[in-house]
Amino acid sequence: MSEHVLVEREGGLLTLRLNRLDKMNALTRAMYASLADALEAAEQDRGVRAVLITGGPECFTGGNDVNDFLQAPPSSTDSPVFRFMHALLDCSKPVLAAVAGPAVGIGTTLLLHCDLVYVSRDARLSTPFVNLGLCPEFGSSLILPRLLGPMRASRMLLLGERLSGAQAVEWGLASEVLDDGAATEARARETALRFVDLAPAAVADSKRLMRAPQREELLRVIEVEGELFNQRLRSPEAIEALSAFTQRRTPDFSRFA
Ligand code: COA
């Protein structure tokens, strides 16, 4: 279990708390593995009625750890990030997220697979894959154009524009915007606890029905995106962009044809 993920149990509510604030909760392989283990265990545990994912009151996550991307890029669909995202996709219990501050890359992508998302006014949702020489992942190339329309999806997926908390609600990516991180987590927790008192099989059936029409298509898209993403991670464009982040400079793509 990674020390950077805290797994908290309060009756029927399981909270997964990212706990690596000095690195903006950037997600390492070990953190994905812990998140996957916790979600897989929650699925088997009849006592868990809802799951809440949060990064605390200041920052959701700076996305995948850039050093991991450079040094140990995922090579197959067995890697911890795939295990985590598939556990999220397969979770039959309601998953809620409380988001304050930045939610970069996979931090925003994972929200697309949650059932309810609460955001702080200072939240900044972004999917800067192209800026990093990468491409969309885990279904975002399917879900975002469908949800936002192609123009807004291009602003997010091609230009990497950041959305504020209020904009995330306006665009349908989040359920409600709250004044600050503490209020956001409190609202998400309060809502998650409502599920504890609801009929669990009815919740699970309803969640499955809502997701069923898109599920096969989503799994196919995720496979195609995953192959391309893993190739792109090894591309000179991505290596330039990721190295630039670690060297705190602007990437230079001028040499690429
Ligand atoms: N991977 C590794 N380290 C990360 C990180 C990431 N994804 N995101 C942030 N960090 C680290 C920084 O390197 C810095 O570490 P240091 O103090 O040892 O130098 C620390 O977290 C604080 O980040 P910093 O950039 O100084 O904070 P900020 O408040 O100016 O900006 C972000 C915060 C989240 C906006 C910025 O860090 C960012 O854009 N990160 C995203 C990186 C990225 O491209 N992620 C991949 C997405 S696919």
Automatic annotation (TrEMBL):
Lyase in keyword set: yes
One Pfam family per UniProt: ECH_1
InterPro entries: ClpP/crotonase-like_dom_sf, ECH/Chromodomain_protein, Enoyl-CoA_hydra/iso, Enoyl-CoA_hydra_C
Superkingdom in the source lineage: Bacteria
Keywords (A to Z) from UniProt: Isomerase, Lyase, Peroxisome
Keyword Lyase applies: yes
Family, similarity comment: Belongs to the enoyl-CoA hydratase/isomerase family.
PANTHER family assigned: ENOYL-COA DELTA ISOMERASE 2 (PTHR43684:SF1), PTHR43684
Protein name in the entry: Enoyl-CoA hydratase
